[in-house]
Amino acid sequence: MSDLLEREMFSALRVGGDERLARVELRRQIGRLEHELGRLTAEAFPRLALDTDVPARSATPRIAGLEELEQVRDALASRISAAQVALRERSVVETRNRELLEQMLVAPAEHKWLRISRADIGEPGCGHWHSRPRLGPLGMLMGWWRVKVSSGCPLSARLAAVERETGDRGAAAGALGQLSAG
Amino acid sequence: MPRAEARGADPGWEPLPEQGAVAPRIAEEFPGLGISWVEAEAGPSRSPEPVQRRLRDLSDRFYGSHAIHMRERPIPWAYRVFFRQIGLDPDRTRTPVEQLALDRLHDGAFASRGLPADALTIATVETGVALRAFDAERIYGALCIRDSAPGESLPGKPGKLTQGTLVIADQQAPLALLFGDTPASVPERLDSRRLVIAAVQVKGVPQASIDEALWIACAAIDAA
After folding, report:
1. Domains detected in chain B
2. What residue in B sits closest to A9 (Cα-Cα)?
3. Of A61, A147, B22, B90, which has the fewest beta carbons less than 10 angstroms from its beta carbon?
4. CB–CB contact B88 A30 (8 Å)
5. What is the pTM of this model?
6. Residues of B in contact with A52 (CB under 8 A)
7. Is-contact B110 B100, C-beta < 8 A?
8. Containing structural domain, residue A90
9. Is a pLDDT exceeding 50 seen at residue A46?
């Protein structure tokens, strides 16, 4: 056992101290870049799916050499750069959409049938704002336009507060039943 | 394997993890890398109700946003970084906690797979620490982390390991890859009454989290 632990470093890594220090520095950089990429991924979710793929050379764990670490470092840096650009572009689009929404709310008739979703302005949820005529075709003819606000998808289940309230009522009814029976 | 910590009658008993060695050339490259383990008396069985309830509670507390923000948390991030440093892509070969998070989102819950797998799931999700289970009857001496020598192979797996592959080994031979599923460490396939639960520590993961993970896993197994 001890001979296996103390065995000579294999040839691929038989290099000078400077190269080991370079690997240490590259690993530190990879750690920092990985953290930044994770932060950007979280920031983009769910508005934008970022490409964070940095393929590995092998499927088995080993001490990665200098060249491989450099490739990982460069690929991470490239992904971060692309993610920052994508997020910046997305922010510009969302800002424009927010301005458009404000204009639509002020003058619905000037933005007929325009529909802006919460996702378009970078908000969570699936609601939207829709410029529509009041009273259907009559409103279209008369120019009675308004912005209809949809609050989003119906909930898949009752709110927890409703459940609690129902539970409390059930418990109270049970207690009352016991009292009357007593 | 020599018996580690024997459980007494004390209800407040907590296992004392043993520390394994890391080959000096590996430790020099990866300061902070370590392996700790405890031994537990348990065979494969259906998880008892308290363990299943705990899995359900964990499922209820774990949402998609947790999975997205997971890589920002220090311990999952530390394992992701280590995967990158050892030449693995954590988006293909998932870190243990990220794999569980993905399974949770895919299945809609942390599905019960019986003991000891459920114990490892609970401890890994609670702490983020990477845990492995081995059959104690097939381990000779203390565990260690080293690189594979020429001609070595993994038990139950055909073919020889590429020289320099990082493995978890006992005093005789490699038991499993340092990360990645290998036959000897898949909890569902263990049939022994004695288990070794091992935690792999990487730089950035505090010893307290390693100890906590091992305690949680042991407590879940003790519930059986």
Report:
1. 18-222 (3.50.40)
2. B25
3. A147
4. no
5. 0.79
6. 91
7. yes
8. 16-53+66-97
9. yes
